[in-house]
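Summary for the lay section of the report: proteins are chains of building blocks that fold into shapes. Here we show the chain for Transport permease protein and then a coded description of the shape we predicted for it.
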Amino acid sequence: MTADRFVVEVKEFTRSREQMIFIFFFPMIFLALFGAIFNTDDLYGTGVSFGQYFLAGMIASGMLNTGFQSLAISISIDRSEDALKRIHATPLPPTAYFFGKILQVLVVSVVQVALLIAMGALLFDVSLPADAWHWVTFAWVFVLGLACSTAWGIATSSLLRNGKAASAILTPVVLVLQFTSGVFFVFTELPSWLQHFAEVFPLKWLAQGMRAVFLPDEFAAAEAAGSWQLPLIAIVLSVWLVAGLVISAKTFRWLRLDDR
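The coded shape description reads as follows.
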């Protein structure tokens, strides 16, 4: 049942041109534009270009868009159109529905990250990690960050009263996080109060974890704390993941508020 539901989710995604453009092409367009506009070849004397720095942020941002924003909107629309009510009335177990969604988010994110890495290597000479330690770091940051984003996507879907207005509500939230978390700008160049604001939320730590993978180790000294802070990244993302799971379990609803 999970496999069948996953196939349905993939078909729905691939048949939605707007969603595919938002998930795949927007991050690639932003990577090309911002990398070309802010064409700095030597950030803080580390030999790192802004395009290389921006790649890590766009990978993190793409995962947030896929796991949080896109998932919350799609579930909210399903609820508004009574699709969730019909699904809940069938023999399909709730676990199969959720795992189908999660697997679809995972596959889409893998493709998205692969495209961004390929683009970064071609346009901005981003070097892929040459040792196993960096790939292990990438694996756990990716899995933990995507799980956190997905959990909050499910949790947030229940807080949205209207599926049609979901995008208008979530887009400003995501934009604020992107502009304050070291995605569109170098994090240390932001005012200190914005840095402290961003430290509360997972996107800042997800972007920092990706920088630890794709930027040279020498750049760690240019971070706000003077290091990659990998243990703290794991702790913050884990706390947000647990909180998202708890809120999802307690607040998720299959019916519209009007039906109650």
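Put simply, here is one thing we learned. The chain has a mean pLDDT of 89.
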